[in-house]
Amino acid sequence: MSNDGEDEAVPAQLALAVQLPDDETFASFYPGDNAQLITALKNAAIGQGDEVLYFWGQRGSGRSHLLHATCAEVNAAGEAAAYLPLDGHRQMSPRMLDGMELLPLVCLDNLDAIAGVEEWERAVFNFFNRRRERATGSLLISAVSASRNLGLGLPDLASRLDWGVAYQLKPLDDEGKLSALQLRAELRGFKLPTDVGRFLLNRLSRDMRTLLAALDLLDNASFRAKRKLSIPFAKEILGL
Known about the structure:
Elements: H1 4-15, H2 35-45, E1 52-56, H3 63-76, E2 81-85, E3 105-109, H4 118-134, E4 138-143, H5 155-160, E5 165-168, H6 174-187, H7 194-203, H8 208-225, H9 231-238
Parallel strand pairs: 1-4, 1-5, 2-3, 3-4
Helix pairs in contact: 2-3, 6-7, 6-8, 8-9
């Protein structure tokens, strides 16, 4: 018995369920040594990618940024994409996956968050099977480690992760982080002096979330105070 009318309504709702940051695009991501992964994600956005693409990287390395960017490309082309942050699974029902197999792009972020959560592991496994039967579009999955190290309780789900290609999102070194900060500043319409960037790297946690948050704070404070960015100003604003 067909239920196509109901199924087709679900993905459109899911695609709009998560508001994507408008500043997390491919243009705002400094690639470092990740050109091959970024090319694969861009191919997925235009329907020419692998059926399943799995990539992993440490927290703060930009995994979510890249998934947001891929969804943004799909949405800009007038297609629907779904982004599901699994680190928020406690506030969501596994039934959110129902119907997602109809979409041209689905992104499951932070798969490691559901390791050992039986109902979610089972739901993702069933979703894999439904999507494979339809053989349409791309499924992008991110986590903090290689799939074999996730500690999944469902062996069949672990085996599904080996169906596609896998990439490691390589972290930026300090020079790469400085370039990433200067790129973000340029896109926001201001200049980050190299000495101020190096000061931030030396005095703050080196994860990109912390660094970008500090950059945003300095940008806003500089605009309000009508002052250029300098090390003394950064010390004053950040309390360093």
